[in-house]
Amino acid sequence: FFFLFKLSPMPVVRNPSELVTRAAPAVCLVACRECREHGILTWLKTNKQITFIASYVIVYFCLGIGIIAALEDWTFTESLYFNIITVTTIGYGDYTPSTIGSKIFSVVHTTFGMVLFTLLLGSRFRAVTSQDVVLDGIEDLMQGGLPVPRQPYWWRVLKKFLLFLSLYLLLLVCGVFFYVFEMDLKFYDALYLSAITGTSVGYGDIVPSRYQDGSKSYAGMWFTIIYGICFFVFIIQVLGYVASQLYNSSVVFDVKSSMQGSLKPHLLDVLDYNADERVDRAEWLEAVLIANGVVSASLLRKIKRRYDELDSNSDGVLTKDDIRSRSRLNTVVTSQPQPSKPTEAFQETAS
Description:
Elements: H1 2-5, H2 16-23, H3 27-38, H4 40-46, H5 48-72, H6 76-87, H7 100-142, H8 153-181, H9 187-198, H10 218-260, H11 265-271, H12 281-291, H13 297-310, H14 320-335, H15 342-350
Helix pairs in contact: 2-7, 3-4, 5-6, 5-7, 6-10, 7-10, 8-9, 8-10
């Protein structure tokens, strides 16, 4: 209860490396630490996208398991097994809808399952893009050059490929080990079953829900539930990385093209946002990022507006005196009796 109702402001990201840490695969560990420090409710309110996806997953599986179990008279394990096989698109065919009601429900269920797959893929895609495009390149662009990676591009791609290959082989080994010793399959059959399960092919000629003698294997069902989820997450990571690299390549190409072109006098007039007949480094950077879709104009307006709020004396430079003045103003506002929510507004703008 203390963790649940402890309400304290979430810390604002102070530098790109901290944002990369929050978006890295170890985000679960960071999330647990933030929940302990700031409370679960505060964390959920701050991470609305993750909260929505988690709620969608819970509702999807609760309804799917309950309804299909009632329509087909299956056990909980059988219903969960059917849902996992469906949403991961494996589809062995060992458990299929047999009534009119369950078939109609499966049409709706599979449709929302594809929505879930799209949400998961989309969230991973944005996380990788934010790291590779915005964070890695912004500092180099500010210095007047193109993004220069600290390691060669081919080496980074090769390391990621070897990592994905190692994880894929590890998952195959785990599947072979279980299916050989628990399901009493031959090695090549176990390898075959592991591969068609992980790649969501699922021919149905060999299924993990039945032993060789035809009896039900609840151990095989539970292992495949966990195994299918692990492989599903792995595929999401691979697809997200490949999609992000394709997107990054197109963005880098567009930025290079826009920076290598010749400048015309009328182009400088367009880039001169403050109408002082000069285009400074910030205006040039803003124009290049907006033109190539790296950042939206509305987001930059919010950032500028927040900067103007912090710049109390309106001299265009943030100093310690500005921060102290802002802190004193917040103290006066929060001490007044009328209700207000400056913290939520600040968090929304900062996010």
